[in-house]
Amino acid sequence: MKYKLPITFLLILFSITTSADILFSDSFESKDMSAPDNQPDSTNLINFNWERNNSTSVVSMDPESVAVYNNKSIYNVQPGNDWNAKDGKYSLRFRYAAGSNMAEQRFNFTPQKDLWIRYWIRVPVNFYHGNLNNKFFAIYGSAYDGDSDVTWQTRPLANGNAELRVQDGGVQSGELLPAPFINRDTDLGRWMQIVIHVKNATSSSSNDGIIQLWRRWEDESSFTNLHDKQDAIRQWEPGTLGYRAGYFKGWANDPYNADTEWLVDTVEFANDSLLTPTDAPTEKAKANPPSNLNTRPITATN
Description:
The chain is mainly beta. The chain has helices spanning 7-17, 184-187; strands at 22-26, 43-44, 49-54, 56-60, 67-69, 72-74, 90-96, 104-112, 114-122, 134-140, 150-156, 162-168, 176-182, 191-199, 209-217, 224-232, 243-249, 260-270. Residues 1-18 and 288-302 have low confidence and may be disordered. The chain is 5% helix and 40% strand. It contains 2 helices and 18 strands. It is globular, with a radius of gyration of 19 Å.
């Protein structure tokens, strides 16, 4: 007698028994930006390179905690810091000083036409979105804000909350697919895992580029698709094709009115799906902001 397995079961079995080939990984346990050179559990098959620190640093709550600026160690833990990593002891901090527009970590690597990216990012404990757009993540080919660029940015919702939008070709396109993203009532100090999939078009006229983004909170067992565009029209450029550079976070058009810190941990790049959660869901644990933080919005000047 022959038995036919349900399709749903086969899909689950396939997801369990297969995994993506990791091209690059960094959990910042090297205590600096040198992975994979000084980090045994890291991978680098695409000549991935972290560029200079720009208001970013590797931090830890370890008693001998170290912050690293441009690969120079500075021991400067202050009362009220909450730098608990998602995995291990260390994570990458993005510090937006009050009234400052910039905290950004750029990177570059060997061009890839079809790329998956997965990472953890923690919502600041005192997050309050201003009135304008703030950059969240970008990946691009030969030039930023050109063909083969995909840029995500947040826009304000009421009461300091935020939605996430995407641009196909950077400033060449409008902001697409707005999706509710951060709710201050439930999400302050909370880790989310992001999965991004971008793919170049098959020709200059095919308009079949792929732009996708999923998110799951740390207490969730599966991902939710926020952006799914499979007819992108600007994911092609002449010459050497492939995504080869990008940045985490970036310019805040409406700067925060108080020192505001994002944390990023466990960054992975792959050539296949990264939609398998990397750990079991955990109970939501909010970090408490220091008592002297002001979360009122400020008036934008640009």
